[in-house]
């Protein structure tokens, strides 16, 4: 019984790590997009 609980915990840790990496990647993309929009809005001829 204890073994199956540890397997479940390790799977949860891996999925959390993948989710964290995905969220970090999305956060980076949003940051870049936001910076581009700000530059376009603030850009004068």
UniProtKB/TrEMBL annotation:
<dbReference type="Pfam" id="PF08137">
    <property type="entry name" value="DVL"/>
</dbReference>
<keyword id="KW-1003">Cell membrane</keyword>
<protein>
    <submittedName>
        <fullName>Uncharacterized protein</fullName>
    </submittedName>
</protein>
<dbReference type="GO" id="GO:0005886">
    <property type="term" value="C:plasma membrane"/>
</dbReference>
<dbReference type="GO" id="GO:0008285">
    <property type="term" value="P:negative regulation of cell population proliferation"/>
</dbReference>
<keyword id="KW-1133">Transmembrane helix</keyword>
<keyword id="KW-0812">Transmembrane</keyword>
<dbReference type="InterPro" id="IPR052153">
    <property type="entry name" value="DVL/RTFL_small_peptides"/>
</dbReference>
<comment type="similarity">
    <text>Belongs to the DVL/RTFL small polypeptides family.</text>
</comment>
<dbReference type="GO" id="GO:0048367">
    <property type="term" value="P:shoot system development"/>
</dbReference>
<keyword id="KW-0217">Developmental protein</keyword>
<dbReference type="InterPro" id="IPR012552">
    <property type="entry name" value="DVL"/>
</dbReference>
<keyword id="KW-0472">Membrane</keyword>
């Amino acid at each position: 019984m204890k073994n199956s609980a540890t397997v479940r915990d390790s799977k949860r840790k891996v999925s959390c790590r993948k989710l964290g990496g995905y969220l970090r990647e999305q956060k980076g993309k949003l940051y870049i997009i936001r910076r581009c929009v700000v530059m376009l809005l603030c850009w004068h001829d």
